[in-house]
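ARCHIVE RECORD
Type: protein–small molecule complex
Small molecule: pyridoxal-5'-phosphate
Source of inputs: curated submission
Record status: active
Notes field left blank by submitter.
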Amino acid sequence: MQKRNQGLSTRCVHFGEIDDPQGSPHTPVYTTTTFAFASTADLLDVVEGRCDGNFYTRYGLNPSIRSLEAKLASLEGAETALAFSSGMAAESALFLTHGRKGILCIGDAYGGTLELLADQLPSLGIPTKFILGNELDCLEAMLQQNVGLVFFETPTNPTLEIFDICRITEIAHANNALVAIDNTFASPVNQQPLALGADLVVHSATKYLGGHSDITAGAIMGSSSLLNPILEWRINLGQIPSPETATLLSRSLRTLVVRVQHQNESALKIAKVMQAHPQVARVFHPGLTEFSGHRLAAEQMFGFGGMLTIEVNGTGKDTSRVVDRLKLFAIAPSLGSVESLVTQPVTTTHHGLTPEERSRVDAESQTV
Ligand code: PLP
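STRUCTURE (tokenized, with ligand):
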């Protein structure tokens, strides 16, 4: 029944669901924090890894969480997946586990990620470096010193820059560095980084995967050998999502394909209208043939995504006026949900950045 070669929509609905004795077609929510064993021998089988089983919810050994993780893994074509209490929880566990030799971040990224990389991880002695998309010529040289992990988003937040996953991965691997990709902006429907050679995929599941603005969660997908040490950090940092959140996220994943495909179509239509508008200076959307990343996106993505960014012809205040006058769009700092949202990154995701950091990432672009 549950085969990984089934289509993505089928896996979204069926994969990972437990065989429920009461006949529920979906895994019920197990709020239980600690699971009972018939004997000490049975308990030791689970604790010592001889048998899969439930044990203690913070460890992730809870049916609702394990069922979610099986589904998440299948969606990215991964051997295994770990669910987290937020996208930032997932990223911090990833960096603490695999970034200690040094992290190279390519291109612009979510503001919280940039803060973590620019300030907080270096304060723990973890070396971090940054290069922009137009500086990729120096990638090989940068990889020579203190880099064990290459990290990037593609498309990026908020300028939707597209990076060549195969090429960057090839260069990183030749220099003994792992590659982790934040696939939040694409979702597994539009892009499959592991199939293109990446080692790890990370998601803010708060976005497309959750899709209803009612879940804060994160995920990492990859091989067991890379995820097992991340799991140790997740256990002791206590970054597990609640079983209720895990169940809600599994529910959302069942409609992921239909939601994302519809969002792809809507965003492209709006991008074309915006492109023709006299008060719009630039439109960033990978589906526009004029967009710099279009060709690469068409090669490595299955769809162009539900996000688009416009640069208003005018000042930041003019942009705020545009944002304030939108009728259907709510002013809110997120993405990937069923309602339409608008955010001016300088007031939200990139608000905490210094002016230098902001001008580096062109954060004054206005994401719709
Ligand atoms: N990665 C990207 C691309 C994001 O846009 C965000 C949040 O906006 C995050 C990571 C962090 O996710 P969370 O808010 O779930 O911690």
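CURATOR ANNOTATION: The first strand starts at residue 80 and ends at 84.
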